[in-house]
Amino acid sequence: MPVKHATASVYLFARIGGGWRLGMIEHPRLGGVLVPGGHVEADETPAEAAVRELREETGLTARFLAPPGCALPDGYPHRAVPPPWWTVEIPVRGDNHLAEPHVHVDHHYLAVADHPDRPVGPAEHPLHWVTAEELPGLETPLDVRVLGAELFGRIGALAERRR
Question: Example GO molecular function term (predicted)?
């Protein structure tokens, strides 16, 4: 049974020039472009990792959109952890955390940068804002293209409904 590492990814959208764009970073080690994300550290939840990775990799903060679901009842005694939109298992060859093949249990979050032109800090990677039309031709994994295309069709309504 392979080792599993918790990771978090952020599908970051912004309204730029009258249309929606998806924020994608140039990844120096993996090549191509990816959505921001990375490993969950031992002292954080996947949601906290998503916020941290987004800020580190892009220099931006964003409004994270909550997925549909049931709220905890009033009086529940424990703090809720913001859930991801999806959690998937992604086989990987190896990375900077473990050289052997293993599995990333990736928590996918959806966020909107209301001020994509106002970074709050330096970005670790170049950030590109891509359109729905540009996405299919990018050098990026199939899962990112499929989910990105689906979200482009829904982001306007989701962003407005969850303000």
Answer: hydrolase activity
- The contacts of residue 33 (CB under 8 Å, 6+ apart) are 24, 25, 26, 27, 128, 130, 138, 139, 140
pLDDT in tens, 50-87: 999 999 999 999 999 999 988 899 999 999 999 999 99
User: Are residues 48 and 39 in contact, defined by beta-carbon separation less than 8 angstroms?
Assistant: no
**CA dihedral (22, 159, 59, 81) positive or negative:** negative
Phi, psi (deg, nearest 5) at residue 34: -140, 165
DSSP 3-state helix, strand, coil percentages of the chain (rounded to 5)? 20, 30, 50
Count of CB atoms within 10 A of residue 77's CB?
5
> pTM for the complete prediction?
0.93
Quote the radius of gyration of the chain (alpha carbons, Å): 16
- Other Cβ atoms within 10 Å of 62 Cβ, number: 24
Side-chain half-sphere exposure of 74, counting CA atoms within 13 A = 0
